[in-house]
Amino acid sequence: MKATAFTVEDIPLIKPGYDIGKLICEKTGIEEHDIVVVSSTIVSKSENRILKLCDINVTHEAQTIAKKNHNDPRFVQAVLDQSEEILLEMPFLLVRMKNGSICVNAGIDHSNVDGHENILLLPDSPDESAKRIKETIFTITGKRVSVVITDTNGRAFRMGQTGAAVGIAGIKATRDWRGTTDLFGRILEVKNEAIVDEIAGFSNILMGEGNGGTPIAIIRGLEMFYEPGTIQELYRPENEDVISKALRYQSI
Ligand code: GDP
Ligand code: MN
Ligand code: MN
To answer: What pLDDT was estimated at residue 252?
Structure first.
């Protein structure tokens, strides 16, 4: 197998209302079955998911948590507002978000956001955002692409951060190897490869984390993946998630 990957150059600072799908078509030549990888940061900016810290009303709960984890109570409040459940309050806030994603600080960013007082929430429905970008690209170019929206996440048990998929369209989240055989005829029983996270991880290398200004990558050549899909497939059902259960038990 051979694939190529590159960043899309000359992307401006994204402002609310910008059409990301249209911008991609203007800045690069799209081909059938390209995988278009977009950092959540610019999707959020285009969807005006920006909050000013000074506009946030802090509750007693946020005050209490902020004292424990030494964070800005207004920031803590923003995280709580995006969350369905708190799994850890300190040393950092780990929450389950309304869409089922479990992540630190509800994925809210300070970096690469204009203005000292501004914070950036993740897109409200990242799968929907991905679908919109995919459909815009189809309308403009007639090409069917897959879209993966990424964020940089820390990982439990391992140091360092990697790209992770937070919203997808036109691609299945996983490639299921179960029932196929290995080199020696043994049937694979558990391997269900989270391909959109792998795509996000590699694309994150191309995008970088700093001032590169490269929030979009194209991966070309992985032809087999064009199918409907949702990121929900990667969120472990609550009754199977032993780690969340242990965290809940610990906090009682
Ligand atoms: P996240 O991983 O989605 O939280 O995004 P990052 O803050 O790590 O940024 C990923 C890449 O996008 C980096 O190369 C940033 O410089 C770039 N980036 C972030 N915002 C913008 C923007 O508004 N315009 C452009 N051109 N690049 C941006
Ligand atoms: Mn981020
Ligand atoms: Mn990043």
So the answer is: 61
Q: What residues does each domain of the chain span? A: 1-48+125-252, 50-121
Whether residue 208 has its Cβ less than 6 Å from ligand 1: yes
Using CA atoms, how far apart are residues 154 and 143, in angstroms rounded to an integer?
34
- Shortest-distance Cα residue to atom 7 of ligand 1: 112
**Under a CB-based contact definition with an 8 Å cutoff, are residues 46 and 246 in contact?**
no
Q: Does domain 1-48+125-252 have CATH number 3.40.720.10?
A: no
Q: Whose CA is nearest to atom 9 of ligand 1?
A: 209
Q: Does residue 136 have its Cβ closer than 6 Å to ligand 1?
A: no
How far does the centroid of ligand 3 lie from the alpha carbon of residue 148, in Å?
A: 14
What is the predicted pLDDT for the residue at 137?
A: 98
pLDDT along the chain (252 residues), means of 10: 96 97 98 97 97 96 95 96 95 94 95 87 98 98 98 96 98 93 92 96 96 97 85 94 90 66
- Residue 110: predicted pLDDT: 87
Equal CATH topology for 1-48+125-252 and 50-121:
no
Sequence-separated (6 or more) residues with CB below 8 Å from residue 241: none
112 lines ligand 1 (CB under 6 A): yes
Amino acid at position 244, single letter: S
Does the beta carbon of 41 sit less than 6 angstroms from any atom of ligand 1? Answer: yes
Instruction: Give the architecture (CATH level 2) of 50-121.
Output: Alpha-Beta Complex (3.90)
Report the predicted TM-score, pTM, of the whole model to 2 decimal places. 0.96
Half-sphere exposure for 195 (CA within 13 Å, toward CB): 21
